[in-house]
Amino acid sequence: MSSRFASISFGAALCLTLSSVAFSRAVDDVPAPKTFDLTAKDTLTVVPMNHKDTLRFTLRNGEVRPFVLRDTAAHLLERV
Predict the structure, then answer these.
(1) From CA 52, how far away is CA 23, in angstroms rounded?
(2) What is the pLDDT along the chain (80 residues), one digit of tens a residue?
(3) How far apart are CA 57 and CA 45, in angstroms?
(4) Which of 20, 42, 45, 48 shows the smallest number of beta carbons within 10 Å?
């Protein structure tokens, strides 16, 4: 009888199992999204945000503008 599934070695199965455990831990370590409330003022304020965090910014006229951090990226501009 032929099997529809490819056979893999014990080492490969162990590697796959350990990889999936590490991945599930990495997913569990992601902090829950936070919400920051700030009001406009004369100085700048630093807000340390992670992906999916929300900033509710209140303008001087009372209007609220929500900002959600969806993605970030970085690249090298110049090597010295």
Answers:
(1) 20
(2) 444 544 545 444 434 444 444 444 455 577 899 999 999 999 999 999 999 999 999 999 999 999 999 998 888 888 88
(3) 11
(4) 42
Separation CA 46–CA 36 (nearest Å)? 11
Q: What is the C-alpha to C-alpha distance for residues 44 and 60, in angstroms, rounded to an integer?
A: 14
> Looking at the DSSP assignment, which residues form a beta bridge with residue 55?
36, 67
Distance of CA 36 to the CA centre of its chain: 17
CA 63, distance to chain mean position in Å, is 28
Cα–Cα–Cα angle for 73, 78, 80, rounded to 5 degrees: 135
Structure tokens at 68: 């959600």
